[in-house]
Structure formats: structure tokens, C-alpha cells
Amino acid sequence: MGQMDGMVAIVTGASRGLGRAVAAEYAKEGASLVICARAQSPTGLDGTLTETAEHIRAAGGDVLAVDCDVTDESQVNEMVRQATERYGRIDVLFNNAGSMVLGESILEIDAARWEQLMRVNVNGPYFCSRAVLPTMMAQRRGSIVNIGSRMATDPNQGGGVLYSASKAAVHMFSYCLADEVRDYNIAVNILSPGGLRSEGSAAIPWTQRDWHERVEPSAIGPLAVFLALQDASTFTGQLASRFDYGTTWGPGLQQSTT
What we know:
The protein is an alpha/beta fold. It has helices spanning 17-28, 49-58, 73-87, 111-139, 160-180, 199-202, 221-228; strands at 8-12, 32-37, 63-67, 92-95, 142-147, 186-192, 239-241.
């Protein structure tokens, strides 16, 4: 028996890295998966949605793969429509799709790049959350997990004006949304995974200096499962850092909510 037997989870940005790892972990724990990503990576990174789906099916999992750009509201709504049509419910939304611009000053980042990253990192969680909430509210239970960052709260982490600002917006969006949907027993939390050995990170030259301190995306799977199992009565409105897992939050610990 898996911890997520009978549950339905949507994972965005599931073609590689953290999204693929979390989707695989959810499937291993018994959830039916809806995974989405853009049909082609604009950065040319390895990994496709089809490969993730094949990996999950080979392990005996149930998965629906949908090409979806989370910056396009109509595509998000169609993805969620397909999810509810196939499974009849949505228990978890893992908002993983994101983009990074690091090490560049405001004068190096033109308006088009600023807008594009904000559309992915901020509009994406907004569109996806707005699309799944009617179903979760009708069920009177659900869990939304948004990916945050230490760079959202600490300017010394090197996120820069664009990436740090986008993640700070995600943090405040999550806190406010958690309060807004509390009466529907829906949890909204922020997962700050810390440095990962992902395809995206490998493409950033300065990450090599702390590569030995980073963890494989699969290490985040158990944390993502714990958050998926929460509701508004157990754990919501929290910034859940990987570095605090097992000490201030996680299985067997007294939980608190805002």
C-alpha cells in the first residue's frame, strides 16, 4: 500500500529534474499522475515529457502526459479539464515549472526576458492554482505545493533582481492563498529544495563550485510526498525548507499552521 493510493496529482515541469523525480515518487506511492511540460525545452536541455511518462509506466504507474505551457491560461485550463475528465478528482498540484536567470544585472536583463521569466515563475502557479481550485474546493480537500527558494528571502544567495523577485512573489502568493482557501481544507505550502544536481543547474557554470553539496532531485521525493498528504488542518501556509526536514517539519513531528 502506498501513501498516496487513490490520489490524483498534477506535476508541472515534469520532463526532467525535480518535476520528473517528484512525479516518479508520487507514482511509486500509488498516485495517478497528470504530468505536463512544454513540448520542447526552449533551453535545449535533455529530457522530455514522453520519457517521464514511459519511466512511470514501466514501473507500473498510471500517468496522463499533456503538453502544456503554464504561461498560457487556455492550455492550463485544458490540461486540468483532461485531468478531471479522466480521473474525476485532483488531490495535489505540484507547481514545479520554472525558469532561472542568475548572475545578470538589471541592465543586462531586457524587458522581454523579465516578462517571460515572471510569466513562468509567477503566472504559472497562479494559472494552475486557479484552474484546480474549483475541483479541490468541491472536494473540500487538496494540497498545492509551490517551489520557493532561499533566494526569495536572502539577497546574499545570488538570485539577482529577477529570479529572487519572482520567487519572493511565489512565497507571498502562497502565504496569502493558504489563508484564502483554509476554510475549504486546502493546504498551500512552499517547498524550498535547496541546491540540486539537475540538468538546469548543471548548465550554470558557477554551480560547479558547490556541486558536491547539492543533492539528486530524487532526494526531494519524500518531502514532496509529505506535503502532498497535508490539508489545512495539518500543515499549511508554511515555508518548508529541505534543510529543516526532519527537525522542524516532516513525518512524526508536531505540525503547526499559520
